[in-house]
Design brief:
Order of helices and strands: HHHHHHHHH
Distance between the termini: 16 Å
Oligomer: single chain
Strand content: under 5%
Number of strands: 0
Number of domains: 1
Helix content: over 70%
């Protein structure tokens, strides 16, 4: 139970459902409720397909191009760390992605599904948290279910976007995004240490 909660928190941090709300409001400003619901379901559906692709085929792609999983884990950890630090010290997720709205032609896909929901961190996490050599298929199934549970949270929050935004405001979303960045940075460092340990055959950090 504790591990499932940890996995849920990890995906909550990399997907950042609350930070997606201001992005959604910005990309659908002035549209009617029917259009907004269509965008919500399409964005969450596309995000689920993208992340499940990385769960099912990410490791196989690495094997096909002969990249050791430990090397990907280290590289992924570094990317996650940079991503997390940008959430903490740079512009928060909502601020960065709202700027891309002006250039978006298909709002459900970009910037809402990618990179707001299915972020680079979420894609990397989907691979790292379902490694075949470390996790059984049952554990991978449970991890995938936690990831999909976070996407369900995204769906609910977007359907209630107006109320959520009134409650927390842009500043609240920015604060939460930075807190998620702090959590994500510790996860990223752990991935780097585990990747180094795997590569050199050392004791794996837990």
């Amino acid at each position: 139970m504790h591990e499932l909660l940890a996995i849920f928190i990890f995906f909550f941090a990399v997907i950042d459902p609350i930070g997606t709300v201001p992005v959604f409001i910005a990309v659908t400003r002035g549209e009617d409720d029917k259009f907004k619901r269509k965008v919500i379901f399409k964005a969450v559906g596309v995000s689920a397909l993208v992340l499940m692709f990385f769960v099912l085929a990410g490791e196989q792609l690495l094997n096909a191009i002969e990249i050791p999983l430990s090397a990907f884990q280290i590289a992924g950890g570094i990317v996650l760390l940079i991503f997390a630090l940008s959430m903490i010290f740079g512009e928060s997720k909502p601020e960065t992605e709202i700027k891309s709205v002006r250039d978006s032609m298909e709002t459900a896909i970009f910037p809402l599904a990618i990179p707001s929901i299915a972020s680079p961190g979420a894609m990397l996490g989907a691979v790292l948290m379902t490694r075949n050599e470390e996790y059984t298929w049952v554990e991978q199934l449970l991890t995938s279910s936690m990831m999909l549970a976070v996407l369900a949270v995204v769906l609910v929050l977007l359907l209630l976007a107006t109320q959520v935004h009134k409650l927390i405001g842009d500043s609240g979303a920015s604060i939460i995004s930075r807190i998620m960045g702090l959590i994500l940075s510790s996860v990223a460092v752990t991935n780097i240490l585990n990747g180094i340990a795997h590569y050199f055959g050392l004791q794996v950090f837990s």
